[in-house]
Write the structure tokens for this entry.
Amino acid sequence: MDMLVAISLAGALGAYCRYVCSISLGKLRFQSLPLAILLINWLGSLALGAAAGVSSKYEIVISQALTVGFLGAFTTFSTFSVEAVQLLISKQYKTAIAYIILSIFGSVVLFSFSYFVTKS
């Protein structure tokens, strides 16, 4: 039960941080590319990769409150999906494709980078 409470509280904090970051970064755009959620998801992937690398290197358990709770709520696949579909609906196909590629591959690359840097 304690873990559930910790995950819930960390999740609430992660959601709050995502909201504050998205409001703060909301006006950032490159052409019509929605940068706020892209940057938030990249940052979350970078942090999760570092947590996984550290836990692997030192054989420690990184708290699920941090990984599942905070970072799970901080990053957002659902908002990414909404923004990608909105770009498609508005017929901004090049921007939508760029956003999808940057979001998915960027997150994987940043996770991998921070994982291997912290693991070695």
